[in-house]
Design a protein that fits this description.
Layout (H helix, E strand, L loop, with lengths): L7 H17 L8 H9 L3 H7 L5 E5 L4 H14 L4 E3 L7 H9 L6 E6 L4 H8 L3 E4 L7 H4 L2 H13 L6 E5 L3 H7 L5 E6 L26 E5 L5 E4 L12 E8 L5 E6 L5 E5 L4 H16 L4 H10 L6 E7 L2 E6 L4 H11 L6 E6 L19 H5 L3 E7 L3 H11 L6 E3 L3 H12 L3 E7 L1 H13 L11
Parallel strand pairs: 1-3, 1-4, 2-3, 4-5, 5-6, 6-9, 13-17, 14-15, 14-17, 15-16
Antiparallel strand pairs: 7-8, 9-10, 10-11, 12-13
Length: about 450
């Protein structure tokens, strides 16, 4: 039997009190508990608070890149003088959205990054003005199941959207393009620069068959995993010309990139601080979303250029004379792109891989066998490798099968010990690249905070 809802003021007061207590006891930053309490005490609260935001709600979702893309969209909104309420600490389930709305101080617009599985429920709750659908890759199999499960859930959610909702979608992802195809109000984006394409699908590509007839897809350009210029010979469906196109992509290793985009509102160029083609997509998605919100094109480029890396997404920290670059690696598509970005650097690579298998990571770590770690060995650029985390020995075995000499490998399951071992391999000065899964990233951040190198609790201000 369900308990009756508490009055709005009483429920909100209890939820805020729970958040303050959580912070006081050092149990967290109060980014999820208030929303969880509020949703229990007044289940309709999220919908009520969303309706009260005058400029409406923007939802950004996808397997990879939603944190960075939401951060970039927020930069364009701030640059245009729009006040924003957002789940800036990355709590992307309904409880995190509810907490952000609970703490809203009269913002004009709401912007939320949303977990792929939570998107259908939050679409129903918030009735969004804009939904950005970025990509769907295999991730957390024990939680999501096969990719088809998420595709079907997204399809039903988009089919139920109000026709006035603008759907931003990645035309280069066949599954996402098919999901968005039936909606009457869409803006598509993609990469048109053939110079950055690859000539064939990687072995770990996720969507390789036509969504309409099941025939294998043809590609005349592949960018990341199954993204690219695709078509089906049997039924004739093909990737449409995107509304927002990256016509020139210049990747500059870890130093960032330069993008030239063609848009319906004129050209936009940006020197982005964020590295890798995955961030090219994030920037194009953010541009398409900003244009759908009627932000001036002249505002967008400079706003994107000012944004630095989000927490753990090519974030850099100095430890004495060593520069540590942290690259979240939680699935094959993301990890492979991180490796390719590292290989654009012109110096020997010291690498720390941290593999956990907790709930937020996914307990099935079989995905590491679809990561192209062999590229590090084939390039002859890997100077040292340290592995750590709960499944450190699984990762060590993966590199042994890749052909790594065990004498070149250090194994330390404890994250602090693994970090120290990796730092020792760098010598007096150097660059260390840390590739952690999500909970390992939080552990690494905690270690750095204890040593006074980063803030104790991360939130994108």
């Amino acid at each position: 039997m369900r308990m009756p809802s508490l009055p709005p003021g009483l429920a909100a007061g209890a939820a805020r009190g729970a958040g303050r207590l959580s912070q006081k006891l050092g149990r967290g930053g109060g980014t999820t508990l208030p929303g969880l309490v509020l949703s229990r005490l007044r289940p309709e609260a999220t919908a009520e608070m969303a309706r009260a935001v005058p400029g409406g709600v923007i939802l950004v979702s996808g397997t990879n890149g939603k944190t960075t893309t939401a951060r970039l969209v927020r930069a364009t909104l701030n640059a245009s003088g729009t006040s924003v309420v957002a789940n800036t600490a990355g709590s992307n389930l309904e409880r995190g959205v509810a907490t952000a709305l609970l703490n809203d101080d009269g913002a004009e617009i709401a912007l939320f990054e949303v977990d792929e599985a939570a998107l259908p429920g939050l679409i129903e709750q918030t009735r969004p003005r804009v939904v950005a659908l970025m990509n769907l890759f295999r991730d957390q199999l024990d939680r999501y199941g096969e990719l088809e499960h998420l595709v079907e859930r997204w399809r039903r959610a988009v089919a139920g959207l109000d026709p006035s909702t603008t759907v931003i979608f990645n035309a280069d992802d066949p599954a996402v393009a098919e999901i968005a195809a039936g909606h009457p109000n869409t803006v598509s984006y993609g990469i048109e620069d053939h110079r950055v394409g690859r000539d064939r699908l990687p072995h770990a590509a996720d969507t390789t068959e036509c969504r309409r007839c099941g025939n294998p897809l043809n590609y005349d350009m592949v960018t990341i995993s199954h993204l690219g210029r695709w078509s089906c010979e049997r039924c004739g469906i093909e990737r449409a010309q995107p509304n927002v196109q990256a016509i020139r992509v210049e990747l500059h290793g870890m130093d960032g990139q330069r993008l030239a985009m063609a848009t319906p509102k004129g050209p936009i160029e940006v020197s982005l601080r964020l590295p890798g083609m995955h961030n090219s997509y994030n920037a194009i998605a953010a541009t398409a979303t900003a244009l759908a919100l009627d932000i001036d094109p002249e505002t967008i480029g400079p706003a994107l250029a000012r944004r630095e890396a989000a927490f753990g997404r090519a974030e850099r920290t100095h430890i004495d004379n060593t520069r540590v670059t942290t690259l979240l690696a939680k699935n094959p598509a993301g990890a492979n792109e991180n490796i390719r970005t590292m290989l654009l650097e012109d110096h020997p690579l010291h690498v720390l891989v941290l593999l956990n298998d907790r709930t937020a990571d996914g307990q099935d770590v079989s995905w590491i066998w679809d990561v192209d770690y062999e590229l590090l060995l084939e390039s002859d650029r890997l100077e040292s490798l340290t592995v750590g985390g709960d499944r450190a020995y699984d990762m060590a075995l993966r590199f042994r099968y890749a052909g790594l000499d065990p004498d070149r490998l250090s194994v330390a399951p404890s994250v602090p010990a693994a970090l120290d071992a990796a730092l020792r391999t760098c010598g007096a000065a150097g660059d260390l690249y840390a590739l952690p899964t999500y909970t390992a990233l939080l552990e690494l951040q905690s270690v750095l905070a204890e040593r006074g190198l980063v803030p104790a609790f991360w939130e994108d201000e």
